[in-house]
Amino acid sequence: MREQGNLGMARQDLAGRVTRGFRDKQRASVGHWCYRSQKCEQPQCEVKVALSASPKVGGGGLRRKYKAVEFHLHWGVPGEPQNIPGSEHSIDGEKYPMELHIVHIREDASDVTEAKRTPDGLAVLAFFVKADEENKNYATLLSKLENIKYKGQSVQVDALPLSSLLPPEEDLGRYYRYEGSLTSPDCYEGVTWTVFEKPVELSLPQLSQFAVLHFDGKNSTPMTENFRPAQPLNGRKVLWSGAGVALPTAKLLLLPLALTCTLSSLSH
Fold first, then answer.
1. How far is 213 from 156, CA to CA, in rounded Å?
2. Which catalytic reaction applies to this protein (predicted)?
3. pLDDT tens for residues 113-171?
């Protein structure tokens, strides 16, 4: 079986650019989800936002159009990100405290299960998260983590633009592209990955807020190290877009998307 790739390799030119539009207001449910499988070394859980509408991604070398269904986060130890970074990719050996994934399924699929029946069913946009300045755009989501510490809890979140959670428009021209797999069970392999070079910034106190989450109930262990370590590339090619500025089509990424979220803690 092929394995998830590590991005620490020589850069190559990428013919084509990613194009994605978030056009519509939509509702979303947000929570942390747990996965257990014989194919992974340990259970994985993540903070996930399940989208009720379907923003699209297409072009830029993608073989077809895809629609967004959810985004989620992986991290190491929130209070000590400098000691145990939690990103699932690395660039030239550098890892980050956290990684954000926006998951898309092919446009003609009704759900993730149906999309996985095809060899090119999913596309994921990945953003590193680093410890730096406070990011006020994350305040709404982070303030609700206390309400979903344990499995089965949920809370409503006010609408917010998804674009505000991502790097600025001018920083979206540099990214990596490769064919790989999901990093959580069932480790489905038909995934086109786009990993952006510019990270999202959160302060250390903001990253530490994820430390309130647990894998299960009150007596369960804290939700830490919910990432899959980088795997060998096994000969697959990683392409690099070195555009100095975002292409006009990339501006679609930053169109306002209002999310009314229900924050919840669910097992999966």
1. 17
2. hydrogencarbonate + H(+) = CO2 + H2O
3. 999 999 899 999 999 999 999 999 999 889 888 888 887 777 666 766 777 888 987 88
Structure tokens given for 213 = 């989450």
CATH code of 63's domain: 3.10.200.10
Q: How many percent of the chain have pLDDT more than 90?
A: 19
Whether the pLDDT of residue 33 is over 50: the answer is: no
Q: Which domain holds residue 147?
A: 19-265
Q: Is residue 185 domain-resident? A: yes
